[in-house]
User: Fold this.
Amino acid sequence: MDQVTLGSTGITVNKNGFGALPLQRVEAREAVRLLRKAFDHGITFFDTARMYSDSEEKLSIAFSTERKNLYIATKTMALNAEGFWRDLDTSLAMLKTDYIDLYQFHNPPFCPKPGEADGLYDAMLSARAQGKIRHIGITNHRLSVAIEAIQSGLYETLQFPFSYLATQKEIGIVHACERANMGFLAMKALSGGLITNSAAAYAFLAQYPGVLPIWGIQRESELDEFIAMIAAPPRMDGELQAWIHRDREALAGSFCRGCGYCMPCPAGIEINTCARISLLLRRSPSAQWLSEKNQAMMKKIEDCIHCGACEAKCPFGLKTQTLLAENYRDYQEVLAGKPL
Assistant:
């Protein structure tokens, strides 16, 4: 079994974190069953957020008698102290707990620091002093904010996108966290569904001893893959290296990661799906993407008002409007029977 210690926190768990974002799409009884199965098979780190609707509440139902035997990480998107306390108190109530193991600022557009007018970081320190939280973390999609957070020495963990599609810049972030004794939680380790080989994804991340993957889990089949890796962790070999090389070749350049920070769209376009439909058609059964419902979803691209809001909010600096147009063209060709 592979284990990871999250920097100075001392939190040590096996190298499989349960990402609870997808549980908001699962009926409560099934979500609780998945959470219990994960825990019973050795997964003890569960990551959620205030913005994940009822995800926190589902965790509380699953673990009402197991609180001291697992770690819960949650997040606030608040931009001032008042919002911080409101989110924290709500999370504690939903989770039915009196403390949170790791409380994280959720993708802020800046790096919160002590003494600033928003009062965010000072509120975090106060919450820790009160025993309501135990460790302070930050999540982000922006390299500049991640670098500033590491250099500040104010954070015990960083949650950041990291997979075998990462560039040298993202790999540099991982190494910087290691040098700073800062835990690293890898979000989007499957790159929003574009990576379809979980063994290759795991083997790549296993090369970085301080990295904890946060796998977004919605189905039992997904959970079973990661449970199997606890007893028999995949190791990098020639076959997995070849798979990764092919994926890197196919996915090189600018592509939508599906993070959703461009949303909502004022024209009602589901940007985080529409802007990567070409890749999804290539990498998963196409029939599901060609349904009447998804055809209607793609047709909404015609309503784009070219306001530029999506591009301004994209943490990866993508030309989102261009991606939408290109993906819509490819989609129409597939509907017409032409291969991609």
Summary: The first helix runs from residue 28 to 40. The chain has a mean pLDDT of 94. The chain has two domains: 3-246, 271-335.
